[in-house]
Specification:
Jelly Rolls, 2 domains, 6-stranded antiparallel sheet, 24 strands, 11% helix, 33% strand, globular
């Protein structure tokens, strides 16, 4: 089989970030002391491009945009050949939250253009949760727009948001319009629409990396928040490992203990893997270690048994684009 395609990660400094990309995933970060909150591992945006680091030799050095625009049918499958997006439709990240992120929301599809933003629905897989870590998501029952405005004015907005207590291995779906914040002490794999629009409504009164308060987007946030979104819960995988299925992506959780074969032969399609634990080998291809994202083109995505270097604790996400 042709080897999977892997990409060079793009680390992003964030005021709330830490150094777990270095300590857990053994990545070299550009600045030896700065906080890095995100790694963009699969991205096709004007300002950021994933570059093929390993795979079939003719593709090494190409960007994800090159693959999507010049080799779409071969690398992503005939079912996506007519996809209307001019760029690869997803953005895949790892987040390292040393501190709480801002209370924020992403614009829903029907408002994004009016608000001069991009819609973003996403999901989080918790790779590691420190004791006591929290996720803020959705609202308490009965919270109205007026009550939320009052709480913003007196600095108590977070008190109106539903709190979850995640454990390693939990998954949460965040549709656009859901008010949310990642709490301190969480390492997260994020699968999302290809968007970088975030409206911050409350930021714990802290300063940014430049020493100034970060911008808030109260008007856009209030327009975007779904005030009927009450107390969401974590996703429970179905017997086939399905965590999330929405119009933008499908994500399954797999493990070496339950999945000796990777890939579905009908119909041929591309598949992105994100290794969340252990080491994964597909057939005789090079080993994929924890924190690695890899694209399997349709030609490589007929069923393949796990290779002998797969560790017994190996676990990974399988991410697919819905056909058009």
């Amino acid at each position: 089989m042709n080897p999977p395609l892997t990409f060079t990660p793009l680390p992003q400094q964030r005021i709330w970030g830490g150094r777990q990309l270095e300590t857990r995933f053994h990545r070299t970060l550009p600045d030896p002391s700065a906080p890095y909150g995100e790694s963009w591992d699969l991205v096709d945006r004007e300002e950021a491009q994933s570059i093929v680091a390993s795979g079939p030799e003719p593709l090494v050095g190409l960007s994800l945009h090159d693959l999507w625009t010049q080799h779409r049918a071969d690398l992503f499958g005939q079912s996506l050949a007519s996809h209307p997006s001019p760029r690869f439709p997803l953005l895949m990240k790892i987040l390292d939250a040393r501190e709480d992120l801002s209370l924020q929301v992403h614009p829903p599809e029907h408002l994004a253009t009016e608000l001069q933003g991009e819609p973003k629905t996403e999901m989080w897989f918790i790779a590691h949760a420190e004791p006591g870590a929290k996720i803020y998501a959705g609202l308490h029952p009965g919270v109205t727009r007026e009550a939320f405005l009052t709480a913003l004015a007196n600095g108590t907005a977070a008190d109106l948001v539903h709190v979850l207590h995640p454990r390693t291995g939990d998954c949460l779906f965040i549709p656009s319009g859901r008010l949310h914040a990642i709490g301190a002490g969480l390492l997260i794999y994020e699968i999302q629409q290809n968007s970088d629009t975030t409206y911050r409504v409350f930021d714990w009164n802290r300063l940014g990396l430049d020493g100034k308060p970060r911008d808030l987007h109260v008007e856009q946030s209030l327009a975007s928040i779904d005030f009927t979104d009450i107390a969401p819960t974590f996703q429970t995988p179905d017997p086939d490992g399905l965590l999330v299925s929405c119009p933008h992506f499908e994500v399954r959780l797999r493990s070496a203990a339950t999945t000796p074969v990777i890939g579905r032969p009908h119909p041929p399609e591309s598949l992105t893997l994100a290794v969340t634990q252990g080491s994964l080998q597909i057939g005789t291809a090079p080993v994929l270690t924890t924190g690695t994202f890899a694209l399997l083109p349709p030609a490589a995505n007929s069923p393949h048994r796990l290779g002998p270097e797969t560790t017994p604790d190996a676990q990974w996400l399988e991410i697919r684009l819905p056909p058009v």
